[in-house]
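Pasting as-is:
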Amino acid sequence: MRKLFLVATAIGLSLTAGCTAAPPPTPPSGGGLATTGSSTAASRPVPLTTATSGNSLTTPDANATLPSTAPAKPAPTVEAAREWRRGRMQYGVQVYWHTDTTDFSQDHSDAILDYVVGLGANSVGITFPIYTDGSQPSRAYAGPDTPTDAQISRIVRQARSRNLHVMVRPIIDETNIMTTQGEWRGSLRPRDLDTWFDSYQALLMPYAASAQASGADEFVLGTELFSLEPQTARWQKLLAAAQSAYHGVISYGVNWTSINRRVSPFAAQGVDLYPALNLGDGASVAQLSGALEAFLMQAPANLRAVMTIQEGGIPAISGMYPTPGCGVTRINHSTWKSKQIGFARLVTRPNAPTSKASTTG
C-alpha cells in the first residue's frame, strides 16, 4: 500500500536565524505530514459542525429592510472526499501547530482544515513543538508556544469531523539545543537519563490521553532522538505508559540516516526523509519519486512493511535537492518573520512499486 502526502504550509512558525532568500508564495493557511496506515484509535468523536455568523448591514436609508436577527444556520462541515481506510491510498497534509501571542481561534483552525480537505487530502498530521533545556538536558517541558492538550484535542476533533485520518506528533524543538554548535535533537546527552525520561513521559501523557479522547489515529512517541534510541528499557517503560492512555497506533520516527535501523520496542516506525538527491532544479515529479523510491528500497523489506514517511520536504530555494535537510534548516532558522511558509513535500508508502505525485506551495 502506498501513501502520498503533500505539504503545503507551516502554521504559526516563528523563524529566527540567517537566510537571505525571499520566502516563497503562500497559499491559504495549511501544512503537511504523513501518518501511518495502521489501525485507528478505539473511539471516534461525534462529528462537529461549524457555525457562521450573520452579516451586518449599514444603510443610510431609514426605510431599508434590516437583516433578520435570527441566528445563522450552521454551515455544513467540509469533509474529505474519500475517507481513509486500510488498503486505500492516503493523501496527507501536515500542519505545524504552535501558539504565538494570539492563540488560533476556531475560525482559523476551521479555515486551515477546510484548506487541507480542499487540497484533496484524506489525512492530516498535527505536529507541535516541545522543548528540552540544551544539548545536555535535565528535563523536557512545554514552551510558551506549545499548544495545550485541550487545544490539540480540539483540533483533532475538528479534523475527524472532516473524515480526516489524524496523527498527533510532538517534536522536540531545537532552539535551545542548537545554541551549542553542531548539536541537534539527535545528539542529546541527558545528565540523568531516568530523570529526563520521567519528565518526557510526564509531558507527553496528557497529550496521549487527549489524542485518545478526541479520536486520533496515531501518536508519535519520539522523533529523531538518535542518541537516545539505544535506551530500549526506558522506551519500553514510556511505551507502556502511553499504551495505558492511548489505544491507537504508537510510532517512533527515525532520521533518514537511520532508515535501515529498527528502533525497539516500536511496532510502527516512521522516517523523516531528507536524503541527498543528485537532481537539479528542473527535476520532474517522476524523477524525484524515482530517486526517493530508490533510497527507500535500501531498507529491508520487513522494515519497509511497517514504515511510513512522517516527514519529508524541500524549500522552494534553488540548489536544494542535494542537501534538502540543510535547506529546511535554513528555513527553520532564518531571519524571516512569517506565520506561513510555503513549500512542497512528497511522501510515499515505500512497499509498493510505483508512485505519482503533484506538489503545492
